[in-house]
Predict the structure.
Amino acid sequence: MGSLTMPKLLVVDFSQDKLTPGSSAWTAAYVDIRRALEEHGCFMALFDKVSPELDKAIFSAADELFDLPTETKIKNINEKPYHGYVGQMSIVPLHEGLGIDYATTLHGAQNFTHLMWPSGNDSFCESSMSFARIVAELDRAVIRMLFESYGLEKYHCDSHIDSTTYLLRFLRYRTPNVGETTMAFPSHTDKSFITILHQNQVSGLEIRARDGQWIAVEFPPSSFVVMAGDACKAWSNDRVLSPNHRVTMDKNGKETRYTVALFSFLSKNIEVPEELVDDEHPLLFKPFVHVDLLNFYATDHGRRSQNILKDFCGV
């Protein structure tokens, strides 16, 4: 299992105005971020663009969403695996999740809102879209830093950002009943390129670093965990870690845990840039379509795989 430790994740303050591209603070930050993504697969971002009002609104939106009847929630269907409703599952009884695809677009936000509230819910639509758009700014800054840290030309980065779409997922973890498992979500890696997690005050996230240690993550106020997914690991030719992570609830806890997660996906082929292939780092992965990775993971073979990228797109 590996014992739980409290090593500190790297904390990068994106709130400050001096973190502008080209500045010395920017360069120092991207060196740290690259190291953190290679060693832990994640870091903590302090990001104050989500105002206290929006922060409050997004968690009250989550409350309102999960209060809907199950027959409404299960209408959240998407042909892309793990994009729609997940819940009422005996293997993860404490967990429930819903997803808004193309969450940074008015179309995406309105479609989802209308599905859940046919008579309309403007405040939910507005809060979720505003939140997704602001957190997507953080995603783009991280992508720029990661690409720059590897010396990849600007065109790589711009074309990546232009072909990124976002899935916003509302995740709920209830407290366990007496005798029930505390494992709210088992160990897994994300299939996204980048995942950005924001939670209410109830902890539970644990991340496994490259050295096998499990890190219990505490979220300070205005903080977001930025985590690499399997697509980022493949793109980086195995330099970046896509970390295993899980959610464990306190058996004596009294409060529901809410997480709002923004996942980035690419609409263009994911391939290793030639700059990341050399004698020390021979090419490990073939180019692939991002949604095909999700589809593979949704098969028995994919779910059982001990090394999904090798099995899916290994050279």
In short: Residues 122-149 form the longest helix (28 residues). The chain has ten helices and twelve strands. The chain has one domain: 4-313.
